[in-house]
Amino acid sequence: MQHYGQNQYRKAQVATVDRGRLIVLLYEGAISFLTKAQACLQEGDIPGASNFINRAQDIIDELNASLNMEQGGDIASNLRRLYLFMGDQLVKAKIKADVEPIKDVVRMLTTLNEAWREAVTKPEAQEVLSRQPSQVKPQLRGGVRV
Prior knowledge:
The chain is mostly helical. It has helices at 2-15, 19-42, 46-65, 69-96, 99-119, 123-131; strands spanning 140-141, 144-145. The chain has one domain: Flagellar protein FliS (Four Helix Bundle (Hemerythrin (Met), subunit A), Up-down Bundle). It is built from six helices and two strands. Helix 2 (19-42) runs antiparallel to helix 3 (46-65), helix 3 runs antiparallel to helix 4 and helix 4 runs antiparallel to helix 5. The longest helix has 28 residues, at 69-96.
């Protein structure tokens, strides 16, 4: 029952948050899943690690899909390359059951998260983010809207 309450709180938190804070929450979610994946690999739980890696990859894919390549310029292009690189690293981690690529991705996500945390506190960033139309489009995976 406690997990139900926590899940409802998270859903309400995400539904009422601004775009900048949502990006921070997505980074935090991916980092959390990858930390759990590392623990699973260290315990020899390959299916568990794979599940957590897949969940982190879904978040990274969503961040990539939400990039505005027309208005984002070099920053959006660089983020896209970085997200694709992270995806490649996570595939390597799953294939080899290796924590090192996961650690690399966590370091990258942590650096990006720190930059976003700082950026969203600036009024200029809030103004730019509020003017941007949402680029996130629902995706279908296995016939299910995600």
